């Protein structure tokens, strides 16, 4: 059967002659581009803006820093290349569509440093024409697997990831809530959870026997001295309709305030600062899926100091939920006065700088005008000298001629 499929694929390739006018993108996607030595991570290949009925693509990676672990069916790993072949057995009637993952593979980080992964190849439409594509590459940073601290009370993780791409938000050791949408073929998830302390204990539960709907994976981290515990959770929505389970925000903004860091739907925790007289906030929160809803709590009756605003996004399926957190710091009167003084001083420094710049520019202009005037006067003086010289020559010639006439007489 495999031989027949290979022959059919070769026949499709040989029958191709003209290029398609379509232009698409071939993207490499991974959850985290910073990997620890010894970790295994997954990379997916996704197509955008095209529909394909056959493909032969190639992934190139650095074997000094990365080790091949596994890949999708229909692939072959040769040296530093992973080769994928596929064609639509239904004659192009069931192509792979834009936004679909067409292949995936797993690699293991071997050596500390930076490594590049690149993808390329050929893609064909249902008429057997080559589709023009923009190929992709990514850089992976591999860090030494060393504990960051020597704190017996430390119960934080250094790294957290799944064996499938798509967990959000980006991992930070202070963020404890994460989310993942699993298709109905995923019954279990492999969780990699590495503590910051070698002596810390990690206990993972809830990652097997996933049922349809909401599942919760708990990662309990106990400090080396057993005195502190930090619980991380991954809320897994298992579904046949990933679009209906989408809980991402497309837009998040606060009137008259800047979010830090800048908004990214894979970041769920933000900070802002507001004036002392600000008692409530106007917040714009728009979900990616317009059938999802967003509710905001904590934006009114702000107290002096830190306030927690929670934006809860409920998906179209009315099951999946994701929370975005904004910590809003309302300044005290003392902080407000200090802030206003700093702003005033900064404005004065800026004004002085601009004034000095203007003065310097004026001095430069005056000096330039003086130089131009001196140059002009110099030129005039040279012209006067030349004219005077010519006059003297003429006078000398005239006098010489008159003397010659006198001598002749």
Shape: extended
Percent helix range: 10-25%
Mean pLDDT, to the nearest integer, reads 83
Query: Hey, roughly how much beta strand do the residues contain?
Result: 35-45%
Number of helices: 2
Low-confidence segments: 1-21
What is the CATH-assigned architecture of the largest domain?
Sandwich
Task: Give the SSE order as H and E letters.
Answer: HEEEEEEEEEEEEEEEEEEEEEEEH
Main sheet record: 6 strands, mixed
Please give a structural write-up.
With 409 residues, this protein is α+β, with helices and mostly antiparallel strands. It has 3 domains: 2-145, Sandwich (Immunoglobulin-like); 147-240, Immunoglobulin-like (Sandwich); 249-331, Immunoglobulin-like (Sandwich), CATH 2.60.40. Helix content is 22%, strand content 41%. The protein has helices at residues 2-14, 333-408, and strands at 19-29, 34-36, 40-48, 54-60, 66-71, 75-78, 81-87, 101-109, 113-124, 130-134, 137-143, 157-162, 177-183, 191-195, 201-205, 213-222, 229-239, 249-254, 269-274, 283-287, 293-297, 305-314, 321-330. The strands form 6 sheets. Strands 2-11-9-4-7-6 form a 6-stranded mixed beta sheet, with no helix packed on it. The chain is extended and about 125 Å long. The termini are far apart. Mean pLDDT is 83; it is low at 1-21.
Question: What is the fold's blueprint, element by element?
Answer:
Layout: H1 2-14, E1 19-29, E2 34-36, E3 40-48, E4 54-60, E5 66-71, E6 75-78, E7 81-87, E8 101-109, E9 113-124, E10 130-134, E11 137-143, E12 157-162, E13 177-183, E14 191-195, E15 201-205, E16 213-222, E17 229-239, E18 249-254, E19 269-274, E20 283-287, E21 293-297, E22 305-314, E23 321-330, H2 333-408
Parallel strand pairs: 1-10, 2-11, 13-17, 19-23
Antiparallel strand pairs: 1-3, 3-8, 4-7, 4-9, 5-8, 6-7, 9-11, 12-14, 15-16, 16-17, 18-20, 21-22, 22-23
């Amino acid at each position: 059967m495999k031989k027949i499929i290979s022959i059919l694929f070769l026949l499709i390739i040989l029958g191709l002659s003209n290029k398609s006018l379509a232009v698409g993108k071939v993207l490499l996607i991974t959850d985290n581009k910073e990997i620890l030595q010894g970790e295994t991570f997954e990379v997916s290949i996704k197509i955008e803006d095209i529909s394909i009925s056959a493909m032969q693509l190639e992934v190139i990676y650095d074997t000094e820093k990365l080790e091949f672990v596994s890949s999708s069916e229909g692939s072959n790993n040769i040296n530093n290349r992973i080769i994928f072949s596929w064609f639509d057995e239904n004659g192009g009637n069931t192509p792979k569509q834009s936004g679909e993952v067409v292949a995936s593979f797993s690699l293991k980080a071997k050596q500390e440093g930076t490594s590049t992964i690149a993808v390329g190849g050929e893609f064909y439409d249902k008429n057997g024409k080559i589709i023009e594509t923009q190929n992709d590459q990514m850089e992976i940073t591999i860090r030494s697997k060393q504990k960051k601290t020597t704190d017996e009370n430390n119960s934080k993780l250094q790294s957290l990831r799944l064996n499938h791409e798509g967990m959000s938000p980006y991992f930070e050791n202070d963020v404890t809530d994460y989310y993942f949408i699993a298709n109905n073929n995923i019954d279990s998830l492999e969780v990699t959870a590495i503590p910051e302390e070698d002596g810390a204990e990690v206990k993972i539960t809830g990652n097997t026997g996933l049922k349809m709907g909401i599942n919760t994976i708990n990662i309990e981290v106990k400090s080396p001295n057993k005195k502190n515990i930090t619980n991380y959770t991954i809320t897994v929505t298992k579904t046949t309709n990933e679009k209906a389970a989408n809980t991402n925000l497309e837009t998040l903004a606060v009137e008259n305030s800047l979010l830090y860091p800048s908004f990214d739907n894979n970041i769920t925790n933000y900070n802002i600062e507001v004036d002392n007289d600000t008692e409530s906030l106007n917040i714009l929160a728009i979900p990616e899926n317009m059938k999802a809803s967003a509710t905001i709590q904590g934006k009114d009756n702000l107290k002096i100091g830190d306030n927690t605003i929670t934006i809860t996004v409920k998906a179209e399926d009315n099951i999946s939920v994701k929370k975005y957190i904004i910590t809003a710091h309302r300044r005290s009167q003392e902080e407000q006065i200090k802030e206003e003084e700093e702003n005033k001083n900064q404005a004065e420094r800026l004004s002085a700088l601009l004034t000095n710049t203007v003065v310097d520019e004026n001095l430069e202009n005056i000096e330039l005008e003086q130089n131009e005037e001196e140059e002009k006067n110099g030129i005039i003086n040279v012209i006067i000298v030349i004219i005077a010289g010519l006059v003297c020559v003429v006078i000398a010639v005239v006098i010489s001629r008159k003397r010659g006439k006198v001598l002749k007489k």
